[in-house]
Amino acid sequence: MSRALMLPGVSIQDINKRVDERGFFAEILRNDWKNFLGDDKVVQANLSLSYPGMIRAWHRHKRGQVDYLIILEGAMKICAYDDEKGSPTTGDLVEIIASEDKLQLVRVPGHYWHLSPNYTIPVIPTRSEGHGMISVFLTQRHRSHSIGTGLLTHRNHSGIDSSAHS
Q1: Which pLDDT tens digit goes with each residue over 73-122?
Q2: May I ask the CATH class of domain 2-16+40-151?
Q3: Where are the domains of the chain?
Q4: Taking the C-alpha atoms of 68, 72, 75 and 81 in order, what is their torsion angle to the nearest 10 degrees?
């Protein structure tokens, strides 16, 4: 089942886990999920791990890229923010808590400011000891992106203030 959220284009596809004595199996992305994917075509897949409590930066993609995110280990908050002037959702923020326990594929159009996979926030203690692992499927090859400066200032796990590198 796919459901839309407050920002147009941001949506969630619940993933069916088939559990048995061996473990589980889940289809996490299928090209025939047209009600969820629309005309999007995935061209790249990434895997990222975030240490407990890390927030690295907000970013967006200006060339039409759409991100599909799924939490594989731990629990994380995925956020999307609309700052487009004149948009009916200007100033709106979507916060989605996703976890390994309830698999969901989250669609985030790249024109929204969003926390990227390795910029997400582990929020719920799980078997993963606080870190979170996420896989991201992209509709365009990954290129450099715009890092936000006015939305969030933070320090990453290396202690570097990344807002200074925007």
Answers
A1: 887 888 899 999 999 999 999 988 888 888 999 999 999 999 854 334 44
A2: mainly beta
A3: 2-16+40-151
A4: -10
